[in-house]
């Protein structure tokens, strides 16, 4: 890969150890991806924030690479809500380590966004922008729905790109690589959780190829977000196209294969995580909720009496502020709305073993051993709310 004279100097350590580590990491990734050069990026989004996920090794890396970022950089959720308590009790060791991680990022000038939906209000890319984003749901969202361009970066590579302000020019940065290689045909319009199930199904059966999904015209932004999160969790593909919805749906390879997804396959995917037992907790907000979603949930519980399991919702600070009316309705009902964290990166299993969620992505992660072996019920919002509305 070609480096400019200025980049060579950084590579040789003339701008300090942290920048040297950052550009060498980018250089190695560029070589692996056959990139010819580094290109400037408009923004970065960094994952690997919860102490539950990165541990002491991650904290050590952050201290080693500490130097100011050079482009707007947002941060994924952490292990608890910094603005209040919860969602579950944590021990002092976890709290201290988590705060140390946050301080390390803040020292670098990273924004206090703590969300996987930074594209709501914090870090809003435009069509064609080159980015370096981590967090599979956010990557899939900005590539697919906005038409911005990022590879599937890891937390360290996105942070390295944020420091240098550049990323290797390969993969999703090149239009030719953004073509659909798989055409998915669906025969009816799917609703929110079913689109999450479709995302999981494509993840399991799509061989990591970029799909063009047909039959979902009119799907709303938050429905496509659910699809992006689920597919991003179960597949290595960094994007998809949806006919009539996403801006690059015309990019289709001549030799694309076809996969029909029938009603039964959506049902089977949901049933895989269906869980019959009454949950101890209902979690909504993976990915973090939008204002529109909070308003919708508020309309369902307005003036109702709460019974049964706990109800936790997850979003970011700016969305919570802008949806203050809806948040009040949900809290008056007896639900709780958390920011900064989520059902997967907080140590939920400290208190709960049986969760219900409408998220395909959370249904994928929560039953895993490293995420606390949760018994999961993957259901639509209306179905889940039957457990808590008297
Ligand atoms: Fe976001 Fe946590 Fe889900 S980071 S996509 S809410 S796992």
Name its key features.
single chain, 390 residues, alpha/beta, Aconitase, domain 3, 3 domains, five-stranded parallel β-sheet, four-stranded parallel β-sheet, binds FE3-S4 cluster
Describe the structure.
The protein has 3 domains: 5-175, 2-Layer Sandwich (Aconitase, domain 3), CATH 3.30.499; 179-270, no CATH class; 273-385, Aconitase, domain 3. It is an alpha/beta fold and 390 residues long. It has a 5-stranded parallel beta sheet with strand order 12-11-10-13-14. 38% of the residues lie in helices and 17% in strands. Helix 2 (17-32) crosses helix 6 (155-164), helix 5 (136-146) packs across helix 8 and helix 7 packs across helix 9 (263-272). It has helices at residues 5-11, 17-32, 51-64, 92-107, 136-146, 155-164, 192-205, 221-234, 263-272, 291-301, 317-322, 324-333, 360-365, 381-385; strands at residues 38-40, 43-46, 73-75, 131-133, 166-168, 180-186, 211-214, 241-242, 252-261, 281-289, 310-315, 336-339, 354-357, 375-378. The chain binds FE3-S4 cluster. FE3-S4 cluster (F3S) is lined by residues 76-77, 116, 137, 229, 286-288, 314, 342, 344-345, 361-362.
């Amino acid at each position: 890969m070609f480096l400019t004279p200025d980049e060579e100097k950084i590579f040789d350590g003339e701008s300090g150890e942290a920048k040297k580590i950052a550009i060498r990491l980018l250089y190695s990734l560029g070589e692996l991806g056959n990139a010819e050069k580094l290109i400037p990026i408009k923004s970065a989004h960094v994952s690997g924030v919860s102490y539950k996920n990165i541990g002491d090794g991650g904290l050590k890396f952050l201290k080693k690479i500490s130097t100011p970022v050079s482009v707007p950089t947002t941060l994924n959720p952490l292990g608890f809500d910094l603005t209040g308590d919860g969602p579950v009790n944590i021990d002092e060791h976890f709290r201290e380590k988590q705060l140390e991680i946050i301080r390390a990022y803040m020292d670098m000038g990273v924004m206090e966004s703590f969300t996987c939906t930074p594209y709501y209000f914090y870090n809003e890319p435009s069509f064609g922008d080159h980015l370096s984003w981590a967090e599979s749901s956010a990557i899939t969202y900005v590539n697919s729905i906005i038409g911005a361009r990022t590879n599937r970066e890891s937390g360290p590579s996105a942070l390295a790109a944020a420091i240098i302000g550049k990323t290797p020019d390969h993969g999703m940065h090149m239009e030719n690589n953004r073509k659909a290689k798989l055409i998915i045909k669906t025969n009816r319009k799917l609703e929110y959780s079913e689109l999450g199930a479709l995302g999981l199904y494509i993840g399991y059966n799509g061989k990591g190829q970029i799909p063009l999904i047909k039959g979902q015209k009119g799907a709303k932004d938050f429905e496509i977000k659910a699809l992006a999160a689920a597919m991003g969790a179960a597949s290595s593909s960094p994007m998809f196209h949806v006919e009539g919805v996403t801006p690059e749906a015309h990019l289709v390879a001549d030799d694309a294969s076809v996969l029909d997804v029938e009603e039964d396959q959506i049902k089977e995917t949901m049933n895989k995580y269906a869980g019959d037992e009454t949950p101890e907790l209902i979690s909504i907000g993976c990915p973090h909720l939008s204002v529109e979603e909070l308003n919708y949930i508020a309309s369902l519980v307005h003036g109702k009496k709460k019974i049964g399991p706990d109800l936790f919702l997850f979003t970011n600070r700016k969305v919570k502020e802008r949806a203050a009316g809806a948040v009040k309705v949900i809290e008056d009902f007896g639900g709780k709305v958390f920011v900064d964290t989520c059902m997967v990166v907080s140590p939920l299993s400290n208190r709960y073993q049986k969760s219900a969620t409408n998220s395909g992505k959370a249904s994928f992660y929560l039953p895993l051993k490293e995420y606390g072996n949760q018994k999961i019920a993957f259901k639509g919002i209306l179905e889940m709310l039957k457990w808590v509305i008297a």
